[in-house]
Design brief:
The protein is an alpha/beta fold. The chain contains 22 helices and 27 strands. Helix 13 packs parallel to helix 15. It binds NADP nicotinamide-adenine-dinucleotide phosphate (NAP) and iron/sulfur cluster. The site of iron/sulfur cluster has 14 residues, from helix 10.
């Protein structure tokens, strides 16, 4: 694809004191790197952001730092308050500037979202996400908080940052001032919109006053709050205009408070779902506006800019997936960009487990120093069997380092389990992620033989130096009387469409796949995963009641363990899947014993009570077993074999582990 396909995305932009080299902004993320106080931690931060600048991002927004101790997100977080810290951050700013990028420090005051005892807010109203209520800020406390934003901005300037981003969205302190639901004050900081908006306007006005025109101020504005008792559209526009008048150079956009019951970044959110509202805001403002949320390809970014819906594009998770997003796009290689699949599995979910974030499709993200690619001392011939994510990841890394690699895949296409996952509503990107790996293999000149089921003898005759067996898994069969009934099918057959599934279904096994399969089978409205208007109706984005379609089938989801469903699902996405199944009327039965299958249906027992579930189809989602016979055979022939992914260990296999094993092997071999 010629470079000028992305000419809007590649165009420089003069904004405030800076000329941005293109329109790519790395959006702020909680990375887990912010809490460092050690030199090694700052080096790690520097490497992480510099790699994104090197990869083409014009402007980087760091993870959020509290402007004071009360504003930090978690007890262990370090607010941005000392000159020593500012000096330590110099290595971050210098590293980014060295790669030709600009960088601003995000200042986020958590307000009542702070998970510690010092949290403060305009009013002492507990957040549904927190166990304790915040203390109410006094008027002096408000003045001091604004002064702390200014001090933190001065320290940011001292650290070499080009500016700051003031976080005014997602339900943090500024949102809490703006919204009547969280601001019940009777003084000059509550009541009318003018009073409620005084806090963010003063923050921006006073930063600008103290730091002058040479300092960039980005204001992250909540375009849609997605909670009751917040701003209406006219108020949202007015606040944006006033913040611009107070001195902001760029309005970045945020969607939804963290306590909103509407998904905003997960896979069920269609690409560019909120661009309509963002474009409307942009047209009402006279400073540049950045579009955000579920923009994961340069083609979509280009369309948004070309349509005049935004001036800049914020890519957060997509720059974890591929630090070189911009570089590859501008070099005419968009197909080689690793695709963020919006799973949150290694980024946001890691953060909530107090780990440094990473990325399922790119484990190097956030761990750059641990995944160094060294040129190979001796070029080897390597055969990789299996073109699922593990095999492809190993092949890409090994070939990039200079080995001669060949890939053999029994299926007619690459991608393995990712192709199955892609059938689930909201997971279409999984297939794109596999395609991106395929494009990288092609660019590296790695031959990929599709439809080639290899046996050990024939393969070893090729005389390769190393054999990578990434042959994956097969579904674990059900082992109860009647399991050979024609109504019993595997999840693989159900998802791929090879098995016909009737209107009454029992799903056996309630792990991630059992939940996904239940959704796949029950959901009739598949539009909402790809069409922003259908998504908005389904989730009630405009404040109206969600429009829930009738389920496509009657689904009963079963498991042997007692207790709640969905405990193994992702922390930040599991609630969506649980809500979807509830809305679709999927019956969930825990603590069952499977007895048998006969003409009457599936016989189960629960708490000593027998029940027969009348079914047309029983879909077995009872986990997997490794497909590893080839490895044993090759080893018996004396070959050097590396077993990775599901073929090595099927239990709790997920794509994150498979990719990680592939990348590590490819770097080590
Ligand atoms: P899984 O999470 O291990 O679930 C399989 C379930 O099948 C078990 O929880 C078990 O539940 C049941 N089971 C096991 N052996 C059985 C048997 N012999 N007979 C009947 N039931 C049996 O595996 P999965 O659902 O296949 O998922 C594979 C991996 O992909 C997991 O790591 C999962 O986290 C990941 N994944 C995640 C998502 C998501 O988060 N949305 C989606 C897809 C896949 P009981 O013992 O309670 O019956
Ligand atoms: Fe995207 Fe998943 Fe990677 Fe997070 S872990 S950046 S959501 S692909």
């Amino acid at each position: 694809m010629p470079t000028d396909s992305f000419k809007s995305l590649a165009a420089p932009l003069d904004v405030g004191p800076l000329t941005l080299r293109n329109r790519i902004v790395m959006g702020s993320m909680h990375t887990g790197l912010e809490s460092t106080t050690e030199a090694a931690g700052y080096d790690r931060m520097a490497r992480f952001y510099a790699e994104r600048a090197k990869g083409g991002a014009a402007l980087i927004v760091t993870g959020g730092f509290g402007p004071n101790a009360a504003g930090r997100l978690a007890a262990e977080d370090v607010p941005f308050v000392s000159i020593e810290q500012a000096r330590a951050h110099k290595r971050v700013t210098e590293a980014v500037h060295g790669e030709g990028g600009a960088i601003v420090l995000q200042l986020v005051h958590a307000g009542r979202y702070g998970y510690h005892e010092d949290s403060v807010a305009p009013s002492p109203i507990r957040s549904p996400l927190n166990k304790s209520a915040p203390k109410e800020l006094t008027e002096e406390g408000i003045a001091q908080t604004i002064a702390d934003y200014v001090t933190a901005s001065m320290l940011a300037m001292e650290a070499g940052y080009d500016g700051v981003e003031v976080m005014g969205s997602e339900g943090y302190l500024i949102s809490q001032f703006l919204a009547p639901r969280t601001n019940h004050r009777k003084d000059g900081w509550g009541g009318s919109l003018e009073n409620r908006a005084r806090f963010p306007i003063e923050v921006v006005r006073q930063i600008r006053g103290a730091l002058g025109p040479g300092f960039l101020i980005v204001y992250r504005h909540s375009v849609l709050d997605l909670v009751e008792g917040a701003l209406n559209w006219d108020e949202t526009v007015w606040v944006g205009q006033e913040v611009a008048a107070a001195g902001a150079n760029i309005i970045n956009t945020g969607i939804g408070w963290h306590e909103a019951k509407i998904p905003t970044i997960a896979g069920v959110v269609p690409h560019g779902a909120f661009v309509g509202a963002i474009g409307k805001l942009k047209r009402a403002l006279s400073i540049p506006v950045t579009a955000s949320n579920r923009i994961n390809s340069p083609a979509l970014a280009e369309r948004i800019l070309a349509a005049g819906d935004a001036d800049l594009i914020s890519l957060a998770r997509p720059l974890l997936a591929d630090a070189a997003f911009g570089k590859k796009a501008f070099a005419g290689k968009p197909a080689e960009i690793n695709v963020c699949i919006a799973c949150n599995q290694a980024c946001l979910d890691h953060y909530f487990e107090s780990k440094v974030i990473s990325c399922l499709v790119n484990p190097r993200a956030g761990h750059e120093a641990d995944y160094q690619a060294a040129p190979v001392p001796k070029k080897k011939r390597i055969a990789v069997v299996g073109a699922g994510m593990a095999g492809m990841a190993a092949a890409i890394e090994a070939a990039s380092r200079g080995h001669s690699v060949e890939v053999f895949e029994a299926a007619p296409q690459i991608g393995g389990q990712m192709n199955l996952a892609a059938r689930v509503p909201g997971k279409a990107d999984y297939a794109s992620a596999a395609r991106a790996y395929g494009a990288q293999l092609q660019a590296l000149g790695v031959p990929v033989h599709l439809g080639r089921r290899v046996d050990a003898k024939a393969l070893s005759a090729g005389g390769d130096d190393e054999y990578v067996v990434a042959t994956g898994v097969r579904p674990r069969p059900l082992d109860i009387p009647g399991a050979d009934d024609s109504r019993v099918v595997s999840y693989e057959a159900a998802l791929s469409g090879h098995a016909k599934v009737g209107p009454r279904v029992a799903v056996i096994g309630a792990g991630g796949i059992g939940h996904d399969v239940s959704l796949f089978l029950a959901q009739a409205d598949i539009e909402s995963a790809s069409d922003p208007a259908a998504f908005a109706r389904r989730w009630g984005v405009a404040g109206t009641a969600p429009e829930l379609g009738a389920p496509a089938r009657k689904v009963v989801l079963l498991k042997r363990q007692p207790g709640g469903f969905g405990r193994t699902l992702g922390k930040t996405t599991g609630w969506i899947l649980r809500q979807e199944l509830k809305d679709l009327g999927v019956e969930q039965v825990a603590g069952v014993t499977y007895v048998k299958i006969d003409a009457a249906g599936l016989h189960i027992e629960r708490e000593g009570v027998a029940r027969v579930i009348e079914v047309d189809t029983i879909v077995v989602c009872a986990g997997q077993v490794s497909e590893n016979a080839l490895a044993t055979e090759l080893q018996a022939l004396g070959k050097s074999v590396h077993l990775i992914g599901g073929a090595r260990l099927a239990g709790e296999l997920d794509a994150k582990r498979a990719v990680e094993e592939g990348v590590r092997l490819g770097l080590a071999i």
